[in-house]
């Protein structure tokens, strides 16, 4: 059968189910953003050592090397607003403390079949809601002298993962070179085009400079941001949608679908049937996993982690408003007769909340006889999110060798 979409919020996540397994949907206010205020001890053990400081702010909150005369600030205290309170630590970024998030804008709010983050435009009000707010404030003296104001995202690695937009009198414009309008307060919107990975740690410095007509530097500042993590949803939440496949002559699941549909409706969930002729889509649990990402104070954006088998046709169809779709890695073509199914999504699960991990922990199968695990690139991607530390379970004694058979 299929995954399940859910509506409850176990320890910071609302479930969404997609293949017969229950996956949690994003919370309206996840622990990721709020744990630093309500439950510091949990947050500390969940997100890493409290000593993780990526840049040290000066006593007044300004970063080292800043030239007074302007400030750039985002939602560093993670309360969903940009206020004066965010000035104190805009150059710091800690999992367990302060630092602003942006999200990987991977949904398709304008229904054009392409993820919103794939283009350099704001695709309407729904897409605007996916932008993290960043404010630049110019002192009177800077405003009087400034001819150009430039904002540049600086990342380690190849860059290009953070995109900025400028809210102008003509609407949102992509930031390309100097800003087209300068005032005492400048509003920017920030998005990421991807999640953190083994090649990018998810961090960026937003560096702003004001220069006079001769090109001399008048004022500068910077703020650190990180892309919000991709969070998988556990099976422990109340289901809102159940996906099940039908159509292949060998499925022989008409009675099963009828019973499942009745049970789903009785539980307040909506059964959705995927018509397919592929035997590989018999168990939709093997086709995808459902997660989410979220900005503090904003609605969650679901993200489907798609399968790599070349026969997983349902997941991409979920791309739409508030739902993104990603793939990580490529089909390895394992055909040793033992581990052929290692990379199917039935070999990936997430636990309910456990001590130290209020969002649960990711786990996957490993055949200890051959050393083959779930696709290493998928594992590395999940490790890069840093909030649901993955671990493996020995599945070598199972015929199919999937963790969903014992979880």
Automatic annotation (TrEMBL):
Alphabetical list of InterPro entries matching this protein: EF_Hand_1_Ca_BS, PAD, PAD_C, PAD_central_sf, Prot_Arg_deaminase_cen_dom
SUPFAM superfamilies assigned to the protein according to its UniProt record, in alphabetical order: Pentein, Peptidylarginine deiminase Pad4, middle domain
Protein's name in the database: Uncharacterized protein
Domain Protein-arginine deiminase (PAD) central residues, every copy: 72-169
GO terms, molecular function: calcium ion binding; protein-arginine deiminase activity
Compositionally biased spans, kind Low complexity: 10-27
Species this chain originates from: Candidatus Tanganyikabacteria bacterium
Annotated stretches, region: Disordered: 1-46
Superkingdom per UniProt: Bacteria
Stored Gene3D superfamilies: L-arginine/glycine Amidinotransferase, Chain A, Protein-arginine deiminase, central domain
PANTHER family: PEPTIDYLARGININE DEIMINASE, PROTEIN-ARGININE DEIMINASE
CC per GO annotation: cytoplasm
Pfam families named in the record: PAD, PAD_M
Domain Protein-arginine deiminase C-terminal: 218-406
């Amino acid at each position: 059968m299929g995954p399940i979409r859910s509506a409850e919020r176990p320890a910071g996540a609302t479930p969404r189910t997609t293949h017969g397994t229950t996956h949690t949907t994003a919370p309206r206010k996840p622990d990721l953003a709020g744990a630093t205020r309500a439950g510091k001890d949990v947050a500390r053990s969940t997100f890493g050592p409290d000593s993780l400081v990526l840049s040290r702010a000066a006593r007044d909150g300004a970063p080292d090397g800043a030239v007074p005369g302007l400030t750039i600030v985002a939602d560093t205290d993670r309360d969903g607003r940009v206020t004066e309170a965010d000035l104190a630590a805009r150059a710091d970024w800690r999992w367990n403390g302060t630092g602003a998030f942006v999200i990987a804008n991977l949904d398709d709010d304008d229904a054009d079949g392409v993820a919103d983050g794939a283009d350099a435009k704001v695709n309407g009000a729904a897409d605007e809601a996916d932008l993290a707010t960043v404010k630049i404030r110019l002192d009177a003296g800077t405003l009087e002298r400034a001819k150009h104001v430039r904002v540049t995202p600086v990342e380690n690695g190849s860059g290009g993962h953070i995109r900025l937009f400028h809210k102008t009198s003509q609407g949102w414009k992509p930031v390309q070179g100097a800003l087209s309008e300068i005032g005492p307060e400048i509003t920017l919107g920030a998005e990421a085009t991807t999640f953190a990975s083994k090649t990018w740690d998810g961090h960026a410095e937003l560096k702003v400079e004001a220069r006079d007509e001769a090109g001399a530097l008048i004022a500068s500042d910077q703020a650190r941001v990180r892309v919000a993590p991709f969070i998988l949803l556990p099976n422990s939440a109340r289901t809102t949608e159940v996906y099940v496949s039908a159509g292949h002559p060998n499925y022989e699941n008409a009675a099963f679908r009828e019973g499942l549909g009745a049970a789903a409706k009785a539980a307040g969930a909506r059964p959705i049937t995927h018509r397919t002729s592929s035997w590989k889509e018999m168990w939709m649990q093997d086709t995808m996993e459902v997660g989410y990402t979220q900005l503090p104070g904003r609605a969650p954006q679901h993200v489907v982690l798609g399968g790599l088998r070349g026969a997983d046709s349902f997941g991409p169809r979920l791309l739409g408003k508030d739902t993104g779709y990603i793939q990580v890695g490529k089909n390895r073509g394992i055909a040793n007769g033992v581990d052929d199914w290692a990379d199917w999504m039935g070999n990936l699960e997430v636990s309910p909340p456990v001590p130290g991990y209020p969002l649960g922990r990711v786990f996957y199968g490993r055949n200890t006889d051959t050393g083959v695990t779930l696709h290493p690139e998928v594992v590395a991607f999940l490790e890069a999110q840093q909030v649901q530390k993955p671990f493996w379970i020995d599945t070598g004694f199972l015929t199919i060798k999937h963790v969903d058979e014992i979880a």
